[in-house]
Amino acid sequence: MWRIKANYFVVVAVLLPACALAAEESAPNFERDVAPILAKYCVGCHNGSDQAGELSLETYTDLQKGGKKGAVILPGRADASLMVRALAGEIEPAMPPPDNPHPSEREVSMLREWIDSGAAGPSGSSTSLPDIKAPAVATARGVHPYLTSLALSPDGSRLALGSYKHVELVDPTTKQIVATTGDLPGKVMSVAFSPDGSQFVAGSGLAGLYGVATVCRTSDGGTISQIKAHRDAVYDAKFSSDGRLLATCSYDRAVDLWNVADGKLVRTMTGHNGAVYHVAFSPDGSVLASASADDTVKLWNVKTGERLDTLGQPEGEQYAAAFTPDGKSVLAAGGDRQLRRWAFVSRDKPAINPLISSRTAHNGTILKMAVSPNGRYAVTASESRELVLWDARMLIPLKRYEALPDVPTGLAFAPNSESFYVASINGDWRTRDVPADASSDSIEVGETNTVAVDEASLDDAGVATETTEHEPNNAFVDANPIGTNDVVSGVISAKGNDQVADTDLYRFHAANGQRLIFEIDAARSKSPLDSKLEILTAEGSPVPRVVLQAVRSSYYTFRGHDSVDPNDIRLQGAADMEINDYVYSNGDVMRLWLLPHGPDSGFMVYPGTGPSRFAYFGSTAITHALNEPCYIVEPHDPRETLIPNGLPTYTLYYENDDDGWRKLGTDSRIAFTAPAAGDYLVRVSDARGMGGEKYAYKLMVRPARPGFEITVGEKNFTVNAGSGKEFNIAADRKDEFDGPITLAVSKLPRGFHVSSPLTIEAGQVAAFGAFTADPDAPDPASDEARFVSITGTAESNGKQIAPSTIKLGELKLAPKPKFLVQVLPNRGASGAQSDSSLSRTLPGELVIAPGQTISATLKVERNGYDGEIKFGVERAGRNLPHGVFIDNIGLNGVTLLKGENERTIFLTARKWVPDQTRPFHLQAEEEGKQTSWPILITVRKAVDTQSVAATPAATN
């Protein structure tokens, strides 16, 4: 494929003067006249990496070698040269291909004249890389030269400011320019100092042609050497920690390592599927991180070039990556507005680097990021001109500064970590101080807002402090003091001579109603510790969390059940149980999500989707045997006086073995609400009573910050004309946030629609929507709106939670499928369909009252498909309100047999379902999972359910 780039028209504009100038010369010059033409039309496919026809035209030397068909130029014989004949279409294949731009007659004449004149190449030490000459345009009066990059020397004495073709060295104290480099090729995309500060490197080049890393002296800006790298402009260049190596990256998707001393290429590391924007060495220089447009950060072994891991959690381009100064973590940020932190594990060999946390504090793409030398802070800047200071260890936003004057182009911390510099593209650069009292609650946007239980609820304002446990701390009087925003490193020691298992105790103070999160990081960091967490009073007594009163007894029938699977749980007396009931069995508490759909089926339990079931009230999911007793229970406040009913009660305390939300694996987690102001203890132990020097852990204590992140099951959707395609949005809820999440889809291309209104209900973790296309919808191939994103918003205690946005990908149009599906109100009902053709979309509304069953019609228009069509069993109703389901489906679910075009379906609403309106649809298992157009279902108390109104269920 021939190279076509976004800056194509710019290249054309600046090349024409060079071509015009060449016409005045007696003979064309290779570098000035010929190389730009080859770069413009040929090098995209004929280069050192992609040698179509075994031919590279990237340099004059490559051109002389020829390709699979031999020499492409015959000096003095343009009419016989393969290159000219291919351009003229005299031989096959003609070049460039038909769908690509072709050289003008003037450009072809230039090539002919150069070949006829002898096809001379570069002379002497002249470079083989083409130059582009553009007319000089004076800067308008009062306009500052724009800035494209910024760096600060290690000692803080020099600030390097990159712009077009130059780097200025500034004294940051006096703000005076002390030195300026000579001309550099193109825009200076990056600047970085060597570890000793004596040199700096400028990354630049000409887009679509080549990149250059220019090493300069800090003393006077003079050029030491130039490394010509990549087939596009260098986006970033960094020195290694010892200053011997240089890493570069570019739009060409490659990461290169160079010897600084001689400028020779050490190795190229490939594997990214998009432009590489940023590189960073680990503190010891052994690992290199690269951030890319392919939504990943990759880690590379510097010595061998081996890829150690791909950090693939981001959902947008990654523009910045950094190692923390202690070498324990990797930070990255980019197009999904998220700042993420991974534990750095893959130091010597490939390994999974676990994601520790991620946060949002921007409304736009994060373009720049810097980490302070002391490792305490990070600062991020976005294209929406936002500037945010973070606690780099806990990813807690500390301060939002006033908006920048323009798009940020550079960030750098001062050596003392007490201030930082930021540059904007409009030429502005400034310094910002890190507040001495920076606190974790000084910003609302970006961190999920803390739930205030009452006016006394406190969110520890201190920056998270890292400490280490000290022995003895087994006894209550020896408990180590900790704050409510701390990270403590400890070890559960082996049993001593007394054969008593080691435990570690910590003392903290909490206000009445204050909500705190306690988490252990052990198993996730490969520690053998099977942690157990307990919250105790100051005197060492367990703190009650909830009292569960049994209201119905039962037991496991048919078979036992494991600790993971949320499906098909068989309980005796299922007919007397209700959705949302809690089930207690041997300390494990689960919650019913969906009723059995027949005699040979069981309950689904929360979360209702995903591979693992939840455990509630801090309990741990365990395996249950056939005939094991269990109870339907109701939760009560521990201070409440209960009326005995002949069934047992169970008091659950603030303790946990394995995280009940299944996010931390076998590590422990407690969400604690202080029942009264005072001192409390947290105890860490091994659940099996084991210990040893390897049984290490980290105890993290922090204020609760309810929030969420949304994810999509699949990306990129092909929608058949007149039909629909389903998408699934899931919510990862944070810190017990349980409220509804509103989902808004970006603008769609003309003729496309989406389910609306779309929400993830309170307490639920997913919603299903459908994209639909009009029968005559135009192909959206050229419509920018075909790239779809979705944003989730929510509130907690009346405060807006940071929104979460993801990309759903691209919408494409396919021909009309072999069958179309529609759900319709029954005939005769008000608002029922009057058009018998399903090629037109006339969505309606179904109205149901809590506790009622209504019917609707499922209709299929067959267009060449005569087989059986299945729509699922218990999950047949896609996106129905929680507690509303398709009823009377039997073991085979909703099915249209061969030749059938229509059937009646029944929908039932449980009596507790709240009033709401929600779009739902059906999805066939055949023909690419064709989906019906959404239809609204309204749950409304005390209404005539036969009154149906025609209401649009989908909007542009």
Walk me through the topology:
Elements: H1 8-23, H2 30-41, H3 60-65, H4 82-87, H5 105-116, E1 149-152, E2 159-162, E3 167-171, E4 176-180, E5 190-193, E6 199-206, E7 210-217, E8 223-229, E9 234-239, E10 245-250, E11 255-259, E12 265-269, E13 276-281, E14 287-292, E15 297-301, E16 307-311, E17 318-323, E18 329-334, E19 338-343, E20 355-360, E21 366-371, E22 377-382, E23 387-391, E24 396-400, E25 408-413, E26 419-424, E27 429-433, E28 465-468, E29 480-481, E30 486-491, E31 504-510, E32 515-521, E33 531-537, E34 544-555, E35 582-585, E36 588-594, E37 604-605, E38 629-636, E39 649-653, E40 655-656, E41 669-673, E42 678-686, E43 696-703, E44 707-712, E45 717-720, E46 724-734, E47 741-745, E48 752-755, E49 758-760, E50 766-773, E51 787-793, E52 795-796, E53 799-800, E54 804-814, E55 819-825, E56 845-848, E57 853-862, E58 869-870, E59 884-887, E60 895-896, E61 902-909, E62 916-920, E63 935-939, E64 954-955
Parallel strand pairs: 28-30, 29-31, 45-54, 56-63
Antiparallel strand pairs: 1-2, 2-3, 3-4, 5-6, 6-7, 7-8, 9-10, 10-11, 11-12, 13-14, 14-15, 15-16, 17-18, 18-19, 19-20, 21-22, 22-23, 23-24, 25-26, 26-27, 30-43, 31-42, 32-41, 32-43, 33-40, 33-42, 34-38, 34-39, 35-36, 35-38, 36-37, 44-46, 46-50, 47-49, 47-51, 48-50, 48-64, 51-54, 52-53, 55-57, ...
